[in-house]
Amino acid sequence: MYQENIVLCASSAYEKKFWLNDDFKALPEQIKQELKIMCVLFTEDVGGILSLEFEEDGTLILKVDSDENDYLYDEIGSVLKIKQIQREKAELLEALELYFKVFFLGEDASKLL
Question: pTM to 2 decimals?
Answer without folding.
Answer: 0.91
